[in-house]
Amino acid sequence: KTGKNLVQWPVEEIKSLRLSSKQFDLEVGPGSVVPVDVGSAAQLDIEAEFEINKESLDKILGNASVVAKAEEFSCEKSGGSTVRGALGPFGFSVLATESLSEQTPVYFYVAKGKDSELKTFFCTDTSRSSVANDVVKPIYGSVVPVLKGEKLTMRILVDHSIVEAFGQGGRTCITSRVYPTTAIYGAAKLFLFNNALDATVTASFTVWQMNSAFIHPYSDEAVRALSRT
């Protein structure tokens, strides 16, 4: 749709691993963190749409005193999901403990540009993904194009120590390896958060529990047939 993005998306067969699902429609105000009741959150498939409250958008865009920060913002260098701006960050904290001592936030950050146009970033923050001190924990991400009239969409695949995040249908993709020490198996939780200073966000999303993939080795006969070719 953009004419300039290489889109990446999970293969359709991933859906065959989906088990039970829950749907949510939640409005989250500025500075909110909401637990999402899905049971164990160690293996999940999350599809979500976000919409910033129109009044919040109009207030920011029409206020000359709101500093334009889009040109200086960077997922990697702007401090991660705890640094609050007028319109973000907001998204999910996956592989999180109940106390949030470990968590991996996947989020959008929307910033006002000098031309008063909005610029959207899609990021994954692994800086608090593990309490282990011998792990490299960077912050990843980049600008993601959002066309006029589009909602902000993300899909997240969580598989124990792997978090794959797809923004705007795969225009921006981030694969992260994380090493939680306590946010594992049944102790892994899911949270929805909105760290924006001034914006209320509506999140509509579905969360599937995921089965493990089953690897079927070749039979001896198949191996012999392959060796002959």
UniProtKB/TrEMBL annotation:
Q: Which UniProt keywords apply?
A: Glycosidase, Hydrolase
GO terms (molecular function) for this protein are:
hydrolase activity, acting on glycosyl bonds
Alphabetized Pfam families for the sequence: Glyco_hydro_32C (PF08244)
Domain Glycosyl hydrolase family 32 C-terminal as annotated: residue spans = 13-209
Asked if the record carries the keyword Hydrolase, the reply is yes
Q: Write out the similarity annotation.
A: Belongs to the glycosyl hydrolase 32 family.
Q: Which PANTHER family match?
A: BETA-FRUCTOFURANOSIDASE, INSOLUBLE ISOENZYME CWINV1-RELATED
What is the protein's name according to its record?
Beta-fructosidase
